[in-house]
Design goal:
Blueprint: H1 2-20, H2 26-29, H3 34-37, H4 41-59, E1 64-68, E2 72-77, H5 95-109, E3 116-120, E4 129-134
Antiparallel strand pairs: 1-2, 2-4, 3-4
Helix pairs in contact: 1-5, 4-5
């Protein structure tokens, strides 16, 4: 199916990974209780994005950090398992990570969709993989 089909498959795999595996870490992240559910959307996002980075850093060798900007979150993976060992590419390839983040944000926010774009990728020669997460939902 080519690169386009592979991208769609990787996005679905990322979403499914969150749904099947990582949702169980909601209690660890502190996002499963009633007090979290009544928070405003931006507070949920702030807590949820940082919690996802913390959990990934704890349960895997992937080290993730988050920086908050005015309109976006900058989610950085310093050791990326998705493009490990891949080099010389001209486009970001970590679509599974995009799908995983999108599904995590959807779950944390109570059903909203958010735009997530990878702007730096180790497979392109960058030092880390960087995702820009827009704070405002697209749906």
């Amino acid at each position: 199916y080519g690169p386009r089909g592979g991208r769609g498959l990787a996005l679905r795999a990322g979403r499914s990974t969150f749904t099947d595996v990582l949702r169980n870490f909601g209690a660890l992240a502190g996002v499963g209780d009633l007090a979290f559910k009544v928070l405003p959307l931006q507070a949920k996002m702030r807590i949820g994005v940082h919690a996802m980075a913390r959990i990934f850093s704890q349960i895997s060798d992937q080290h993730s950090t988050v920086q908050e900007q005015d309109h976006d979150y900058v989610y950085t993976i310093h050791r990326c398992p998705q493009c490990w060992g891949r080099t010389g590419l001209d486009k970001p390839v970590c679509y599974m990570g995009i799908g995983l983040l999108q599904e995590g944000l959807k779950w944390v926010s109570g059903g909203n969709e958010f735009r997530v774009n990878e702007t730096q990728c180790m497979a392109m020669g960058d030092e880390k993989c960087v995702y820009i997460i827009q704070k405002n939902p697209i749906s």
